[in-house]
Amino acid sequence: MAVEDYAASLDSIQAARNRIQGQIRVTQVITSSSLDALAGRSLFFKCELFQRGGAFKIRGASNAIFSLSDEQAERGVVTHSSGNHAAAVALAAKLRGIPAHIVVPRNAPKCKVENVERYGGKISWCDPSVESREAVCASVKSKTNAVLVHPFNDPQVISGQGTVALEFLEQVPQLDVIIAPISGGGLISGISIAAKAIKPEIKIIAAEPTGADDAARSKAANSVQTNKQTCTIADGLRASLGSLTWPIVRDFVDEVVTVDDSAILEAMKMCYERLKVVVEPSGAIGLAVALSDKFRSNPAVKHCTNVGIVLSGGNCDLTGLWESLPN
Question: Is 83 helix (H, G, I), strand (E, B) or coil?
Answer without folding.
Answer: coil
